[in-house]
Write a structure and sequence with these properties.
The protein has helices spanning about 10-15, 20-25, 45-60, 75-85, 135-155, 200-210, 285-290, 320-340, 395-400, 410-415, and strands spanning about 30-40, 65-70, 95, 115, 165-175, 180-185, 190, 195, 215-225, 235, 235-250, 255-270, 285, 305-310, 350-360, 365-370, 380, 395, 405, 415-420. The chain folds into 2 domains: about 10-170 and about 355-420, no CATH class; about 170-350, no CATH class. Strands 4-3-2-16-1-19 form a 6-stranded mixed beta sheet, sandwiched between helices. By secondary structure, the protein is α/β, with parallel strands linked by helices. It starts with 10 loop residues before the first helix and ends with a strand. It is globular and about 70 Å long. β7 and β8 (about 195) form a beta hairpin.
Length: about 425
């Protein structure tokens, strides 16, 4: 067991994670950051990583921790181990996971007394619908409220009042709302909400990189789906991602541009028709295979740029093949980022400032995100060159052998995590 379509956190989900948003916007919370760690297939390593997460939380002097996971089955061993090693240090902890009726915990411990079940189905099962059983704002609010109560019960004598605030780093996000999109023969351009893309230019960009992927990729295609085309048949959905471009500064700082109203969808299939999947494929009619308007899926009104990759037989079942599909998609999207990067700030639809902000005296809380770290269709890329991109990033398996890495809230919301599930 691993990640099903309904539970997996797409790149888009990480980009606008409700846990990050809820904690950052709560004026009573001193949000310390996100601890990202990969799940392993080795029990000894699971225990070691869990202990290091517990030690890190203790070193941060946290008052409480939210632990979130988007996989289940054997991966619940990682989840339970992390909760236990945090609880053993007398740190209040609340977990978030899909459970329902299908994903009962394979192991439990006395510290797993506060779990927010992310199941959204009446049957309590995985229905192969992307985004259906993932965390939403209500889950985040509920988890935080439970955690605050646990913290107060632990230290009833303490007054949790913010004494002072300190701004640490600022991220400016300029958004450009796409209200209409299509393919044209001329240069790509954006004007008054209308985005024109050059299909030949996008295809040529993909062809340039695909020449180095001949052992993995048979072919690919690019299409633009309007909000009215949800009756379209799609291959297995590997990811949804935003289109954002770094303008100035490092990840989590400076200025980034973002197209709203437009999302990227990466789909793939093997040339003989095999649909890549971890626990059940999400191929079918788009409107039936996606729960729209969730943090990790497009809005129902979004245009969708679909990069569909045909992998050679057997390559959808290899780590290299799946990574090739993501790299090819990122190359196509890079061409759209160039258009986004060329836009003047004066025509932005909105401008939002995000701060990493220390609140002295508030609830010191960290989030632990347990992300896939096993390989094919079960991996996570950290710190790509562009927000939510692929190029320049490092696999959590290769970078740290699934060990915990602390990233700031602004780094997280600026696209520091790219999902390969």
């Amino acid at each position: 067991m691993g990640t099903g379509p309904s539970t997996k956190e797409t790149t888009l989900h990480h980009y606008r994670d409700p846990l990050c948003r809820t904690l950052a916007e709560d004026n009573d919370v001193d949000f310390l950051g996100i601890v990202v760690a990969g799940t392993s297939d080795d029990n000894e390593h699971k225990a070691f990583v869990a202990k290091r997460i517990g030690a890190l939380c203790e070193a941060l002097r946290v008052d409480g921790v939210l632990v979130s996971i988007d996989s289940w089955g054997n991966c619940h061993i990682d989840f339970a181990s992390v909760i236990e090693t945090i609880g053993e240090r007398n740190i209040p902890v609340v977990g978030l996971s899909f459970v329902g009726t299908q994903a009962a915990f394979v192991v439990v411990n006395s510290y797993m007394d506060s779990i927010v079940d992310l199941n959204k189905t009446c049957e309590g099962i995985e229905r192969l619908i992307v985004g259906e059983n993932t965390a939403v704002d209500l889950d985040a609010v509920k988890a935080l409220a439970i955690l605050k109560n646990k913290i107060r019960r632990k230290s009833p004598e303490k007054s949790w009042n913010v004494i002072s605030t300190k701004d640490i780093r600022r991220l400016i996000l300029r958004s450009f709302a796409v209200t209409n999109a299509g393919f044209e023969t001329g240069n790509a351009e954006f004007s008054k909400g209308s985005l024109s893309l050059n299909l030949r230019q996008l295809t040529e960009a993909g062809n340039a990189v695909s020449k180095g992927m001949l052992q993995y990729v048979k072919s690919f295609s690019v299409r633009l789906l309007s909000p009215r085309e949800k009756d379209t048949a799609v291959n297995s959905i590997l990811d949804f991602a935003p289109i954002s471009a770094k303008m100035t500064g490092r990840t989590g700082e400076g200025i980034s541009h973002l197209f709203t109203g437009l999302s990227v969808m990466l789909t793939a299939v093997e040339e003989d028709g095999f649909q890549p999947a971890n626990f059940g494929a999400s191929n079918g009619i788009l409107g039936e295979r996606v729960c729209f308007d969730r943090p990790g899926t497009p809005c129902a009104s979004d245009f969708i740029l679909n990069v569909d990759v045909v992998l050679k037989n057997g390559q959808a079942r290899t780590r290299a093949g799946i990574m090739a599909a993501h790299e090819l998609c990122d190359t196509v999207v890079a061409s759209v980022r160039d258009t986004l990067r060329s836009l003047l700030s004066s025509i932005a639809t909105s401008k939002t400032e995000y701060w990493d902000r220390a609140r002295s005296g508030g609830y010191k809380i960290a989030v632990v995100k347990l992300v896939p770290g096993l390989g094919c269709l079960y991996d996570t890329i950290l710190f790509p060159a562009e927000p939510a991109g692929y190029a320049g990033g490092k696999s959590i398996m290769d970078r740290s052998n699934n060990m915990s890495i602390l990233i700031s809230p602004n780094e997280y919301r600026d696209g520091a995590v790219h999902s390969l599930t």
